[in-house]
Amino acid sequence: MKFRTFAMFVGPSIFLMVLFIAAPLVSVFLQSFQITQPVVEMQEVETCTAGFLTQTCTTETKTVPKLDEFGNIVTTTEWVGLLSYQRVLQLDAVGAAISSGNWGDILNIDFWKALRFTLTFTLITLPFVIGMGLAIAMVVNNATKSMKGPVIFVSLLPFIITPVIGALSIRWLFYGDGIVTVWLEALFDTNLSVAANGWAVEFLMMFYRVWHVAPFAFVIFYAGLQTVNQDTLESAIIDGASRFDRLRYVIVPHLMPLIVFITLIHLMDAYRAFEEVVGFSSQAQRITLQWLTYDLLQPDDAGNRAISRASASAMLTMIGIVIILMPPLRRTWRDHKGG
Length: 339
Hints:
Elements: H1 3-31, E1 34-38, E2 40-48, E3 57-65, E4 75-79, H2 83-89, H3 91-100, H4 110-142, H5 145-160, H6 163-174, H7 179-188, H8 198-225, H9 230-238, H10 243-270, H11 275-280, H12 289-296, H13 307-338
Antiparallel strand pairs: 1-4, 2-3
């Protein structure tokens, strides 16, 4: 292929990737080392009380933002190095908790609390997503032709639903006077408050993630099952291999590249979980790293945003994604070299 033809095909993709991925990433990286603050000045403000005969006026010196000729707030940007990372990680508080033996205090820090739940959420849901997806694919693959269509349609419904809508649907089943909660209260003759228990909220968030993502794994595995060598399966049946043996020694090794692919996609997606926190309103019990970055970008009472700390949190999240992706990527590289 000529270079000009190659450039015409690849050029638009490279341009869009640089414009919408590389450039924002560089901007966030630079902002994590900067702090932008409004320039303030001292002004005397006179306040008068309402009065019919006499009126009392007081003069106070207040700090107000400085405005330019167009009425915009004047800001100044200062390079602060790793200060924003230190404020996000709060390593001094972590060291104090470790030295005093109060390890639980570490989880009171927003970043470490979000990191704990994000890792737990990602790693626990991963095997269930793969297992449920493979189980559904095996059922559909062995079903009769008349049953395959309805089973595939039902299995794909959770994946079709908008993530936030799906989370809200499950939330309405369990929160407050949800149908499932009412049934459980009648069954066990007790009062339940799912939203008040952190472990219950965490379980529902993980349940929703598996319910929503397992159909994606099912589609990938079902396509892979169509390429399994039937001669090998028939030979295994003739040799007396059970269903479990055929699954373990024939099907799973054949699907291993797809398992690694689903693992990569799930790790990247689950580590950036955000919809679950919004859908289940779990800010008081469980937060994720992505939600922490969003929360840092919310304006405070004075209208200021912690852009530098939010950028540092985003960069730390990206570093975490790279770290958890290293094992499957190394396996993929070894398989590639071996091939």
